[in-house]
Each structure stands twice: as C-alpha cells, then as structure tokens.
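Researcher: We're teaching a course module on how sequence relates to structure. For the next exercise, students receive a sequence and then see the predicted structure as tokens, so they can try to spot secondary structure elements on their own. Here is the exercise chain.
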Amino acid sequence: GLVRPMLDELLDTTGLGKWFDATVSADDVQAHKPAPDTFLKAAEWLAVDPQACQVYEDGDPGIQAALAAGMHIVDVR
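Model: And here is the predicted structure for the students to work with:
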C-alpha cells in the first residue's frame, strides 16, 4: 500500500513519531471506517482492551467506527 510509507515518512520528518507507541494506517486493515478495524488494530497492537480506549474523532465514519469497537468517543468538531 501507499499510505503506510507516507505516514511513516511524515512522522519521521516531523519528529512526531516519538509520541506514538503505535500507528495504524489504511494499509494495515482490510475494512476501513466506519468499520471498527482501524481502532481494534490499534488496541491490539497496544495490548489494551478496546473498552478502555478513548478516541478523539472529527468525522462521522470515525465516530461510528470507534463506537462499533466499543470505545469511548470525544467528537472534536
């Protein structure tokens, strides 16, 4: 896929990568938002129960995905 390399380069170039223990791109999952796969993959990689996760989202598909994953949601719009 094309998204993972772009994400990794962006995080490396900006120095922001050090602030994340895990990142999930569209290349890392089969089903995209509003499916919960992206958020569930992040919880899996962090070894955290999805119900213990807090999601900050700015779009309806992401909010639907987080809720479907059983996570707490903050709509930042």
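Model: If you want an answer key for the exercise: The two ends are 29 Å apart (CA to CA). The chain is about 40% helix and 10% strand.
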